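chain below, 168 aa
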Amino acid sequence: NPSGRHKLSGQLWNSKLHEVRILASMIDHPDKVTEAQMDSWTAKFNSWDLCDQVCMNLFDKTPYAFNKAIEWSKRSKEFEKRAGYALMACLAWHDKNSPDSKFIKFFPHIKRGATDGRNFVKKAVNWALRQIGKRNKNLNKQAIKLAHEIQKIDSKAAHWIAADALRE
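prediction:
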């Protein structure tokens, strides 16, 4: 029962316990998730694994995922910003039906995020770029091109992101 799962998930999330919150993301029903819930949960992210698990288990299956990925990538708080890039990576990995154009729209945001030297953001930007590049030959070519553009940015974080993505 989707409504029952959703209600239980909210109760589990409100426990504020790390592992219980991850469990909440595993049992909630994506069709019942609202944008307000996504924003509320994202504001509570305090670790990379909670961020990534919620994006991977739940958020990437919602109808708001592509828009939220872009929106959150513009945030300043470290784990909220990471959520944007983690969501891009999860969508590239799990969403088998979306056209390449939806992922190419992430490229300007990936390029913008490449100068953020914070470890958890930098690694998520890199993850998004690599996952998009793994979808198919066309996106692989486009991701390599983007990595070369990022390589030219005068930023230690950008150089690391580009080198790591190109190595893979």
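The CA atoms of residues 11 and 24 lie 8 Å apart. The mean pLDDT is 98.
thats it, cya
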